[in-house]
């Protein structure tokens, strides 16, 4: 009798254990199914988000193509330069003769410092002239100035002129070179104890140093060279640094002064 009771007790315990195990398995399976549904819903939402224009992090927009001048405009610009160069060569030849006359005058006036400065200036011009005469046909096709459209306009003499970054950089060079040469010319006149007069300097009258006939008109280059020159002359003659600075023996015009001389704005 006692054995039957114990047997029935063991059977009841076993059935209960099996029921509990089955319930646990069912609960785990339901949880996994719910998680799977949530993940599927999340993936679907992300897919719809990308469909509205969102991009995956590792994808990048292709680079935009650089704008170029129209072919006709580029050819017109090349034609202008080809006409300008022979005229500029003639100007350099004429200025060489004027410089020789000017040098003789300085010697008669015993302005030794100004004479030495002018000879150095002329040496630079001769090198510049030699490079221009020995140059073969310019590689217009690979010069970015000729295919880059105008993006700026600058104001001079009551008119606006359009150019691109390369032309603008050349105008800045004109101001910088003008200041450097003016500083040296002013210091030379002071050393000679000659009255201050920047307009009397040959370099100011010539104003072609650094110009090779490209990118901007010679009149524009001359104008900005002279604007830098007169400020450099004032600093050099007065031995002060109102418009520029001196570092390790090299003079340079202040960037703020250049910005005040070359007034320009973006047009595109």
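-> sequence recovered:
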């Amino acid at each position: 009798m006692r054995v039957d009771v114990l047997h029935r007790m063991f059977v009841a315990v076993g059935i209960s254990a099996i029921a509990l195990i089955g319930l646990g398995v069912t609960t785990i399976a339901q949880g996994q199914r719910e998680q799977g549904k949530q993940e599927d819903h999340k993936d679907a939402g992300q897919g719809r988000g990308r469909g509205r224009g969102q991009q995956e992090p590792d994808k990048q927009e292709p680079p935009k193509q650089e704008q170029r001048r129209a072919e006709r405009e580029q050819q017109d610009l090349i034609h202008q330069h080809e006409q300008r160069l022979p005229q500029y060569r003639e100007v350099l030849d004429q200025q060489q003769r004027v410089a020789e006359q000017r040098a003789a005058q300085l010697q008669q006036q015993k302005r030794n410092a100004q004479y030495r400065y002018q000879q150095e200036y002329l040496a630079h011009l001769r090198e510049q002239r030699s490079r221009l005469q020995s140059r073969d046909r310019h590689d217009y096709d690979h010069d970015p100035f000729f295919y880059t459209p105008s993006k700026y306009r600058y104001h001079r003499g009551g008119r606006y002129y359009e150019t691109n970054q390369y032309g603008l950089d050349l105008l800045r060079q004109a101001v910088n070179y003008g200041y450097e040469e003016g500083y040296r010319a002013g210091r030379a006149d002071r050393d000679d104890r000659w009255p201050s007069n920047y307009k009397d300097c040959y370099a100011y009258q010539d104003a072609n140093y650094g110009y090779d006939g490209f990118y901007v008109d010679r009149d524009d280059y001359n104008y900005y060279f002279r604007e830098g020159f007169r400020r450099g002359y004032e600093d050099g003659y007065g031995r002060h640094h109102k418009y520029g600075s001196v570092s390790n023996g090299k003079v340079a015009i202040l960037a703020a002064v250049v910005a005040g001389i070359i007034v320009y704005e973006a047009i595109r």
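The longest helix spans residues 2-51.
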